[in-house]
Write a structure and sequence with these properties.
By secondary structure, the chain is an alpha/beta fold. It is built from 13 helices and eight strands. The protein has two domains: about 60 residues, no CATH class; about 250 residues, TIM Barrel (Alpha-Beta Barrel), CATH 3.20.20.220. Bound molecules: dihydroflavine-adenine dinucleotide. Dihydroflavine-adenine dinucleotide binds next to β4, β5 and β7.
Length: about 300
Amino acid sequence: MLGPVLLAASRSGRMRRLVSRTPVTRPVVDRFVAGDALPEALEVVRTLTTDGIDVTLDHLGEDITDAAQAHANRDAYLKLLEALGDQGLGKRAEVSVKLSAFGQSLPGGHDLASAAARRVCEAADKIGTTVTLDMEDHTTVDSTLAILADLRRDFPRTGAVLQAYLFRTEDDARALAGEGSRVRLVKGAYKEPASVAYQSKQDVDRAYARCLRILMAGDGYPMIGSHDPRMIELAVRLAGKYGRSPDTYEFQMLYGIRDAEQRRLAAEGQRIRAYVPYGADWYGYFMRRLAERPANLAFFLRSFTTRH
Ligand code: FDA
């Protein structure tokens, strides 16, 4: 019941101000976000990669309101990629980009976001790494997949994200299961209407399993973006069934969630990548994590009682 309320709050300016200014919020945010600035994020990258966990970095900054912010976000990625290159981390760390941070929802935003994403792909290519385009609410999917197709002509390893909760996704998974295609499959984190998306957890889980089968049976590079033990087990089973070696797919989990499982998979010889967000604009990301799981919300609420 609380999930939809929190997802609605994730888009509310008033709630943003309230939650962001509450001093006790910070220690809870730190569990999910690797700091406000680049040096803190790079420190986290060094720790994770030393432990055998690859990384995809997200510079937080979604839902912007003008082109200047879009350019500032693009430049933050260029700086991040330069730093990864300088530190020789290009083989272990890639970047994840939300096109809304590059102005996708502004007037003329498709072209603005496309041009910014292209600059980021060029910079990533230069240091031997890749970019994955995160997927946001369902109104952006066509635009994001069109930008992806365009980028892949020059940067074929650019990654897509598909959200299993959308009715359309099985078809999208079939279309993106070809050779060289990197696809992160997630359940989906936005509040979507019943006209476009499954609403019950059971239906979403079933859809995830169907899409996973399509991707694992295909010739692409599936990226299993889930903390769900059943989906992880299914992926391992499907890898066996389709004769996939561990370098032909990878698991992905969010920074701060199921750390022990991330290390276990690495120790078992599976490829695992942590999604590491950093930056001052953490509100929307943080609220989606609270909405996902009552235990995360309980952790947040407990911090009020233990710190006063
Ligand atoms: P779900 O939340 O259904 O949980 C299933 C089970 O997993 C739980 O019952 C429990 O056993 C275990 N589990 C989950 N969280 C746990 C925790 N904190 N501690 C212990 N166990 C836990 N979404 C989107 O819309 N667009 C995007 O681009 C992305 N990108 C993205 C990247 C990566 C790397 C990940 C992992 C996720 C995303 N997501 C996303 C978010 C995704 O859509 C989804 O909301 C979350 O991953 C939660 O769904 P799960 O599959 O983890 O399982």
